[in-house]
Amino acid sequence: MRYIYPILLILLISSGCVSSRQFKELELQKTQLQRMSDSLLALSANQAGELGNLRLSHEQLSADVAGLRSDTNTTGNQLRRLQHEIQEAMRQNQMLEENYRKLLKGRESETTEMMNQLRDARTQLLQREDSVLALEKALKAKIARLTELEEILARRDREMQALRTTVAKALKSYEGAGLTVQVRNGKVYVSLSEKLLFASGSTGVAENGKKALTQLGQALNADTTLQILVEGHTDDVPMKPAINLQDNWDLSVLRATSIVRILIKDGGVQKTRITASGKGEYSPVAPNDSPENKAKNRRTEIILSPKLDVLYDLVK
After folding, report:
1. Residue 107 confidence (pLDDT) above 80
2. Distances (CA, A) of 309 to 69, 152, 188
3. Which residue of 6, 134, 138, 215 sits 20 to 30 Å from the alpha carbon of 251, by its own alpha carbon?
4. Global model pTM greater than 0.85
């Protein structure tokens, strides 16, 4: 547009027929054209600026698009990786769930087995507790019986000591004459020497011995529960065979029966309480190596025992 006005001016001048009015119109047109030219120039400049801005915007947008594409590719890669990881996680989760179900099923079996074992253990424990209680009960009963037995034995010991005292007192006049009274193993042993009762080799009791046996029998009647055993003893000197006497066995037995008859007849002892026995020379209290020791062995022992039925019942 800026070349149009000079060209028109040249054409008018060269024509040589321009009037004043026309000139003014031309000037006016010139001015208008100038303004139009300026406006076009300004518009052209604005359009050029806008075009530059558009180019910059386009370049920026292109760069942004390229960046977005790059980001999109990266994001896509990340997304695909995440999807793969998710799929892998889901697969592992499925495996874990399956393993958990298997484990749970196995644990249920183990739990059932453990519960059965626990129940059996509790049953055994209860049985053992019952056994312990039964043993404790039995032990208490045994302790009670033992205590009762000890009390009875203690009472029997006291009774035997009292009996010894009674017998010793009843036969006090015969002390030193071949009579001793002792308590051994819960029994009272009344030992009568041969010289107090018999002549050598004889089975007949002397008068002094009869008196002693009569007093002893009367003392024994104070306790009718006592069991009486009469044992005859000899030394080891063989005796000469005689009527009804073949050896020391016969002599010891017949002497015992002679004493039993006196205790029953003169002492009043019940026949059911008394027993006669003989041991001959086979239960000496001293070696048969001197006259003194042989005299000790020639003796009769009257053994007094308490009735032990109550003790036997407790033991049973």
Report:
1. no
2. 119, 11, 18
3. 215
4. no
Domain membership flag for residue 273: yes
Whole-number Å distance between alpha carbons of 178 and 233: 14
Count of domains forming the chain = 2
Question: Which distant-in-sequence residues (6+ apart) come within 8 Å of 197 by Cβ?
Answer: 205, 206, 209, 212, 213, 255, 259, 300
Specify the pLDDT at position 164. 86
* Exposed/middle/buried for residue 69 (C-beta within 10 Å: 0-12, 13-18, 19+): exposed
User: Is the domain of 46 the same as that of 191?
Assistant: no
**C-alpha–C-alpha distance, residues 203 and 232, integer Å:** 10
The answer to whether position 260 is within a domain reads yes
Which pair of tokens denotes residue 191?
Answer: 């030992």
pLDDT (0 to 100) of residue 172: 85
The span from the CA of 246 to the CA of 241, in Å, is: 5
Is residue 183 within a helix (H) or strand (E), and if so which, with residue range?
strand 179-184
Q: Looking at the domain assignment, is residue 310 inside a domain?
A: yes
User: What mean pLDDT is predicted for residues 213-222?
Assistant: 91
Query: Domain range spanning residue 281?
Result: 157-315
Residue appearing with tokens 């009043």: 268
- The domain that holds 216 is classified in CATH as 3.30.1330.60
Same-domain pairing of 189 and 303: yes
Which has the higher per-residue pLDDT, 5 or 256?
Answer: 256
Query: How far is the C-alpha of 251 from the C-alpha of 244, rounded, in Å?
Result: 9
**What does the alpha-carbon distance between residue 276 and residue 260 come to, in Å, rounded to a whole number?**
7
**pLDDT tens digits, 149-203:** 788 778 878 888 888 888 888 888 887 778 899 998 889 999 999 999 998 888 9
Tokens 């749970």, residue? 104
Residue 214's pLDDT is 94
pLDDT given for residue 222 in this prediction: 85
Domain contains 96: no
